[in-house]
Specification:
Phosphoribosyl-aminoimidazole Synthetase, Chain A, domain 2, homodimer, 60s Ribosomal Protein L30, Chain: A, four-stranded mixed beta sheet, about 325 residues, 9 helices, 2 domains
Chain lengths: ~325, ~325
């Protein structure tokens, strides 16, 4: 759906600011609680909490993250879910979101309604109140920036730092080819992240957004390299489909494609991997794969992720 | 300073994402704490707190909130300060900020350096760590969206709701003509807001961003009108200067111009106003003016704010 309209009567400019805000409240419905816990005051208010607070921000920009081929509801769902994936990547759970919208006055009211209704549906299904936001004009532009506040379940937020040489490297789900649909249909791994944060032998955690080859650098301890078992990498069906269309292998897609939104984490070398994996399977249907370990030098036969590149945002 | 450059070597695109993030860390310096309390993980982490949390978000957009005539440092300072003003408007104090940047790859590195150095300077002077953020591409665009997390000092965040018929209406500072410079040079009224939240006879509070005439609606109780004393409205020198240039009166500017970033609040009718004002003057040099009260019907001789209009964002 094209977000802009040449017909002034169908555009945001015909509503004006106050009526637009009233419409947004209506579209969000129960997804936005009464002020000051929802839209309508200078700040949104969240009740006090005993846990560390988590904050993440991600935008969707017209022409970059979505185009006319993506339904407005799906744009909104993705915006919230990519932020939820960041909360999952710390082992936390979400508390509330605020959304800043920058738009050309020619944006169609119908597009915007679908966007907010999609946001409300996703917010309800993940239990995330939309607590506030901002609307501003941007000539020729359309971008929505969502900030998500979450909190750690226990005293610990699981970060990217903490892996040691010898740690096992794990990944959830299958990788690559997200562009064929997964980048909209993915499920943020909130329950899995929270379970991992509760286990002391899990030492570092992140979500995959720019491709395994690039993202793995963030977990790699100093003076270590990831020795990956090429045959173990869980390649998605979409990566295999893409490989048939272009000159790149399915493995290359699995290591290089962005927007997997799967979890990547490390487990202490001493861990009984079999018991760990059994405990996982009792709890989750989500696929879990050990793809290698951190070593001092590249192990014989191991795959070097530096031979692959990840997604570059500013090219 | 023009933010875009035709010379690729001077542009953000020549840095690439990883080097750009490294540069941003350098420019921010001590304004960004070590990860996970600063840039570098999936989420920023804030320590647990016993107080209600406040969240506000505001952007600056090229072509809307700033242009080539505004130094990049001033753009960043304004971005943080307008969010600080929202925290002040709840009687809170700031905890941390995250910033999402959307930019064309042709944005000049020099502009961006000045922007982040300006952000760092303002963040340091208000004690606000820059805890995280995001960078994304937006063809032809340049926008920065800052989300500020704060907290109430005590159990109470002072909201826009709570005024009753008979309440006195107060405003800090002087109003109007912000466009002549105040919109960059203003001081967020954090200490004043916090002091007001501690007083039980202060019943509602907000900051003025769209002009008194428009913003006052948000505080007005049901079945009440604000009866304003025209002669009492504190008119800024800038509003008088503007009035000499255009066909509108200085009073019109004081009621209609946006971006005053002053506090507007109400005090219970029973309050000893003289004692209240004396207590204020002992604590603050900031000008304080009682500009009227909420009544059932417009008092004889009172000024009707509906005869004036405020700033309309989507026109």
């Amino acid at each position: 759906m094209h977000p802009f309209t040449a017909n002034t009567a169908d555009s945001v400019s015909s509503l004006g600011e106050l009526r637009l805000i009233a419409a947004i409240r209506r579209w969000l419905g129960k997804a936005t609680p009464p002020s000051p816990f929802g839209i309508g005051d200078d700040c949104a208010v969240l009740p006090a909490s005993r846990h560390p607070q988590l904050v993440t921000v991600d935008p969707v920009v017209y022409g970059e993250h979505f185009d006319d081929s993506i339904p407005a509801r799906a744009v909104a769902a993705k915006l919230l879910k990519r932020n939820l994936s960041d909360i999952a990547a710390m082992g936390g759970h979400p508390r509330a979101a605020v959304i800043a919208l920058a738009l050309d006055p020619k944006v169609s009211t119908r597009w915007l309604e679908q966007f907010y209704r999609g946001l409300a549906a996703t917010a309800r299904s993940y239990g995330v109140p939309i607590a506030g936001g901002d609307i501003t004009r941007q000539q020729g532009g359309l971008a929505a920036t969502l900030t998500l506040i979450g909190e750690a379940r226990g005293p610990r937020a699981l970060t990217r730092r903490g892996a040691k040489i010898g740690d096992w490297i794990y990944v959830t789900g299958t990788l690559g080819g997200s562009i064929l649909g997964h980048h909209h249909r993915f499920t943020p791994r909130l329950a899995e992240g929270s379970w991992l944060a509760d286990r002391r032998d899990v030492r570092s955690l992140m979500d995959l957004s720019d491709g395994l080859a690039k993202d793995l650098h963030a977990l790699t301890p100093e003076r270590a390299v990831p020795s990956l078992i090429g045959a173990a990498i869980p390649i998605s069906a979409a990566a295999r489909t893409l490989a048939k269309r272009d000159q790149r292998s399915a493995l290359t897609h699995a290591l290089s494609d962005g927007e997997d939104f799967e979890l990547l984490f490390t487990v202490a070398a001493r861990t009984d991997r079999s018991a760990f994996e059994t405990a996982w399977r009792k709890k989750f249907k989500t696929r879990l794969t050990c793809i290698g370990r951190f070593t001092r030098t590249l192990e014989a036969g191991a795959l070097n992720p530096d031979d692959f590149t990840g997604y570059e945002h500013l090219r």
